[in-house]
Amino acid sequence: MRDLRRSGARRYRERVRVQVSPDAAELITTLGGQLWVWAARPRMCCSGSPAWMHAATAEPPGVVGFTAVDVPDTTEGAGSLGLRLYFRPVAGQLPDVLEIALTGKRQPRVAAYWDGCLMAMA
Length: 122
Prior knowledge:
Elements: E1 17-20, H1 22-30, E2 34-40, E3 51-56, E4 67-72, E5 80-87, E6 97-103, E7 109-114, E8 119-120
Parallel strand pairs: 1-6, 2-5
Antiparallel strand pairs: 2-3, 3-8, 4-5, 6-7
């Protein structure tokens, strides 16, 4: 678990728990150990559509505003997973839990979930 803290002049701090599945951690490590996670609204849709979560093991072109976070291992005494997470919050809001898992059987890829949802519930 890792705490992400929103910067700003507020007196309280918001925290995010990061949960990475073992399969996702293995794939991310194999592909360089870095993960970019962000939410974006569809370009061609009705107004008021939710932002969908995205994850990539390479820096996404044209997307800025990421905060770098080291992701520690949650197993007792194991230290760090060696993963580096770059996270961009949605409109300054953070999820309670940012889940990272694998999706797809033939071509596995990393997926991010905002409190268990593929949509950012901001």
